[in-house]
Every structure is written in C-alpha cells, then in structure tokens.
Design a protein that fits this description.
By secondary structure, the chain is of the alpha+beta class. It has helices at about 90-125, 195-210, 225-230; strands at about 1-5, 55-65, 75-85, 135-150, 150-160, 170-180, 230-235, 240-245, 255-260. It has a six-stranded mixed sheet with strand order 1-2-3-4-5-6, with helices on one face. It has a three-stranded antiparallel sheet with strand order 7-8-9, with helices on one face.
C-alpha cells in the first residue's frame, strides 16, 4: 500500500538540500537527550525470537513535476521511503523509526522545491517561451531494505539526479536501527574492542574494493568509525559503506557504495 503525500507549492523555498551535499537534515537525539521518551522493549518471554521477527514495510511516496508555461515537463521528482507496520510488541519502537522517515520526507519535499527553483532559474529569460525541456532533469530517491529481521532494520538509500550542468549525480546514505531500542546503531558496535585493528581491517577492504572496481585508492584522511556512523548498513552477509564523492578516490565522479563481504571481516567482528 502506498501513501501519496500531497505536494507543497513549488518554487518558494531556498535551497536546503542539494547545496549541502547530503540527503538528510534530520537526526536522532541520543538516548541521554531523550531519557523521558525512551521506549522499553517488550518482555522477552512474550515476543518472538529475533530470527522469527520480520518487519513488514509499506511505502511513503512523493512525486511531483515542474511544468513549462507551454505545458511541457521541465523536471520530475520522485522519492520513496519505508514505513514499517506498527504491529505486535514492538509497535512503539517501529513508530519511532517511522517518525524518522516521515521527517525525512518533509526534508525531501523542501529539496524538491529547491531543485525545481534551480531548474527554472537555469532557463533564464527563455523559461516563458520554452516549448521543450533543455535536458532530462529528474530526481529519483529510492531505498533498499538490506535487512529487516533479526532485531535489526538496515536501509540503503540512493539519490540520483541530473544537476543544472546536465551532469548525472549519485549520493548514497544509509541507516541501521536496533529494533530492541529504536536507536541507530554505531558502526563501532559491530566490531571488537581493539578499535585500531578493526579500522585497519575495514580500510584494507575499502582499498581492495577500489581495486576491484577500477578505482585508485587515495583516501586523503584516515577511515574512522565515527565518520561513518550515519552512513552504513549491514545485511546477513555484507557491510555497506556510503562514501561521498572523491572521499576514497580522486577518480570517483560521484558517491560510492562500498560493499564488503562480512566473511572478509570475520576476525574483527564482535
């Protein structure tokens, strides 16, 4: 089932998203900031085991187009985000996760207005008389649930768009939630206590991935778990790291989604 969100009036807001180079303006408060709102997990003896629990999801969908005065379509925008069914003993926890994505959708609606404003401005004086679009301007914001069971929800999101220079761009983001608390997991928590050893192992795998994908590894600053906390996902067999443009290679023309088999990190996983 899809819930179509009513579009806001276009071309009214200043750029809030594309200029920032990111895909999210919202964040979770940490537990110490939200003590009064902590959702307690259901008693263990009344809920199914992690292996039995699969978190079913519907979809939040936002679609809009920018029309030329002549009636042609100048640009399109589509964004989809997950909404989990708030059922069973963990309904309140899933509500917290859903609220996060509802806030994200509001940010994307603002991003849409900003994107359309930039596209219209790129036409200059020709906007009023243009009959055909000058390019296939579009935004497609999609997601993949790489894990939705075993006490964890992990989502990879892909933001593809054509900028005003008619260049294809891509940005990756991700979230990983602990379904016993509703809080985002930290990347460090997946690994052993020897942080330096674990970070080195991940760095070696990033370098290996670059070689396998025709990129020369040239990370300017050392990889750290803290830098990656808000941009990773994990499935049953793969760790996904969302890297920005040129972060791991000067040859990278856009964001990169680094995929590391968990078996390659077995010696440093917790």
């Amino acid at each position: 089932m899809k819930r179509n969100i009513q579009a806001l009036t276009a071309l009214l807001l200043l750029p809030v998203f594309l200029m920032s180079g990111g895909c999210s303006v919202s964040r979770f408060r940490q537990p110490e900031e939200e003590k009064e709102e902590t959702v307690k997990p259901a008693p263990q003896d009344t809920q199914p085991t992690d292996e039995e629990t699969v978190y079913e999801a519907d979809e939040l969908l936002y679609e809009k187009q920018l029309d030329l005065p002549s009636g042609g379509v100048a640009a399109t925008y589509r964004a989809a985000l997950p909404q989990f069914k708030e059922e069973g003993n963990q309904g309140l926890i899933l509500r917290k996760i859903n609220e996060y994505y509802e806030t994200e959708l509001t940010a994307l609606q603002q991003d849409c207005d900003s994107y359309f404003s930039q596209i219209q401005a790129s036409y200059g004086d020709a906007w009023q008389t243009a009959v055909q679009p000058v390019a296939d301007y579009h935004v497609d914001f999609s997601y993949e649930l790489v894990q939705q069971s075993g006490g964890r929800i992990s989502v990879v999101r892909t933001y593809r768009y054509v900028d005003t220079n008619v260049k294809d761009k891509v940005i990756y983001t991700a979230e990983t939630f602990d379904c016993q608390t509703g809080w985002p997991e930290k990347l460090q928590d997946l690994f052993i206590e020897d942080k330096e050893k674990a970070q080195q192992a991940v760095t070696e795998q990033i370098e290996k991935w670059c070689g396998e994908n025709g990129l020369e590894y040239s990370q300017l600053t050392p990889f750290t778990f803290e830098k990656q906390d808000g941009s990773f996902a994990i499935s049953q067999d793969t760790l996904y790291l969302c890297m920005g443009e040129s972060v791991i290679s000067a040859q990278s023309a856009g964001g990169q989604l680094v995929k590391i088999p968990l078996e390659n990190l077995e010696s440093v996983l917790a």
